[in-house]
Write a structure and sequence with these properties.
By secondary structure, this protein is an alpha+beta fold. The chain has 11 helices and 10 strands. It is globular.
């Protein structure tokens, strides 16, 4: 099926992450993320010049201090950046940089299209007029926590990580616009908070359910109901009390439970058909949400099913497989 946006590749970045002396710990390459590109690494000292890219770069320094010199246009800055310090480079700028020491860092590239989408939602008017302001060494606790959350998502087995990354990207975009841009100080009127209509909610859930075995992005789900991703996140959560990526995980687990009850397919095959990366990923979320493993769940429901007794009342079943499932499934916990 056609996707609303393409996967964000390292080849679209400045190329800093491709330097052979960097030691990459984890990266979003191959994860299907479209709203941002992220990487966690040990950076060696270096000096270089880079041509502009369209998207926006944010670097979080995890250790240090380290002296950094940056040149863009006629502006040259040299700062000693301490742990938690930010390096923010808006898209569209050529720049030069010299890192005078090695650091542990998180690089996050945010799609310009996502930033413009969020700007239109927040402020109205022409989002193209809003520009980010370059930063070096500034501290922003909210951006720091978002960057750490993105780093954690790089190694999270969550099968809905692409949807989760889309949500983090839009939260990051909103913070950058509010605290690090030339935005108009008068925000547009906030959108209504009543949630999705019944038709929109049903359409969104049907779309997710029909594509559980595929790698979904937030834009794909939002597009199915005709909303922008930023608006869809708020409205979906208002309607369900759950973020889209959490709801998607639960749908995948319900599909897995059905296949475990009603088929003899292997657990690995079921994991693949339900959109999990592999069997261990499904087992992880099965334990977290259902309180058991797929194998134990399958044995339990089949053992209970052996004792199903037909009802003597017309049109009624005394014990169903669904009831058997409820009798052995543990209470669900939040994702």
């Amino acid at each position: 099926m056609e996707r609303s946006s393409s996967t964000f590749s390292v080849r679209e970045t400045h190329g800093i992450l491709l330097r052979p002396d960097n030691r990459i710990h984890a990266a979003s390459e191959g994860l299907g993320w479209s709203s941002l590109y992220a990487s966690a690494q040990r950076e060696a000292p270096y000096e270089g010049s880079f041509r502009a890219v369209r998207d926006h770069l944010m670097i979080l320094h995890l250790d240090g201090p380290v002296a950094v010199c940056r040149v863009h246009g006629k502006c040259q800055e040299r700062r000693t950046v301490r742990p938690g310090g930010l390096f923010l480079l808006p898209g569209g700028l050529d720049y030069g940089v010299r890192f005078e020491g090695g650091i542990e860092s998180v690089h996050v590239y945010l799609r310009d299209a996502v930033l413009r989408e969020v700007a239109a939602e927040l402020f109205g008017g022409d989002p193209a007029r809003i520009e980010l302001v370059p930063r070096i060494g500034n501290h922003d606790p909210l951006i720091e926590q978002l960057a750490l959350g993105i780093r954690e998502a790089l190694t999270d087995p969550d099968p809905a990580s692409a949807v989760y990354a889309d949500q983090l990207a839009r939260t990051l975009g909103a913070r950058l616009l509010r605290a690090h841009s030339n935005r108009n100080p008068q925000p547009a009127k906030p959108p209504p908070r009543g949630g999705l209509t019944r038709t929109q909610l049903a359409r969104a859930i049907e779309f997710m359910d029909a594509n559980l075995d595929d790698r979904l992005a937030l834009g794909d789900i939002a597009g199915a109901v005709g909303l922008s991703p930023a608006h869809f996140i708020r409205q979906f959560k208002a309607s369900t009390g759950t973020a889209p990526h959490q709801y998607l995980v639960r749908l995948r687990l319900e599909r897995a439970k059905c296949l475990l009850r009603e088929t003899d397919r292997s657990i690995a095959q079921i994991a693949f058909e339900c959109g999990f990366s592999h069997q261990e990923h499904m087992t992880h979320f099965f334990g977290q949400i259902a309180g058991t493993t797929p194998a134990v769940f399958r044995r339990a429901v089949r053992k209970v099913a052996q004792f199903v007794v037909p009802s003597t009342e017309p049109g009624r079943r005394s014990v169903t497989l669904e009831a058997a499932h409820r009798s052995v499934a543990a209470p669900e916990a939040p994702v």
